[in-house]
Amino acid sequence: MYDDKKHKYRYRIKDKDGFGDTVDFNSMWCVDCPDSEYIAEDAAEDIFETFDGYRDSDEWPITVLVESESGARIGEFRLEMEYRPEFYASEVKNDGK
Q1: pTM above 0.85, yes or no
Q2: Distances (CA, A) of 7 to 16, 72, 84
Q3: Do 7 and 24 form a contact (C-beta atoms < 8 A)?
Q4: Contact, 60 vs 48, CB < 8 A?
Q5: Across the chain, which distance is largest between two alpha carbons, in Å?
Q6: According to DSSP H, which parts of the chain are helical?
């Protein structure tokens, strides 16, 4: 369930040696949410913002363990990232040449 309150969670990113350090993050989805994937998607956004895109796009998809603030396991999730290019234009002024 989504609400106006920020809920505290934590995640650990899995690498070849197992799960790494714990990182705290917030989500508007409460822990009893039947679709815990939404909490994991908020973790993915935090990973992208906190770790500058998680080093390299070649590292995605990644696997994370998501837990509640108290340490209760919510689940292990595979996170994938889609790229959607955005284009911007600005007019080039001709200075008479």
Answers
A1: no
A2: 30, 14, 28
A3: no
A4: no
A5: 68
A6: 37-50
CB distance 38 to 27 below 8 Å? yes
Q: Which two tokens stand for residue 84?
A: 């959607």
The angle subtended at Cα 10 by Cα 70 and Cα 85, nearest 5°, is 155
Phi, psi for residue 51 in degrees, rounded to 5: -105, 25
Contact 46, 25 (CB under 8 A): yes
CB 79 within 8 A of CB 40: yes
Which position has the token pair 């990644």? 62
Across the 97 residues of the chain, what is the mean pLDDT of every consecutive 10-residue run? 80 92 92 84 90 66 93 93 82 80
Residues in the chain: 97
Helix (H, G, I), strand (E, B) or coil at 79: strand
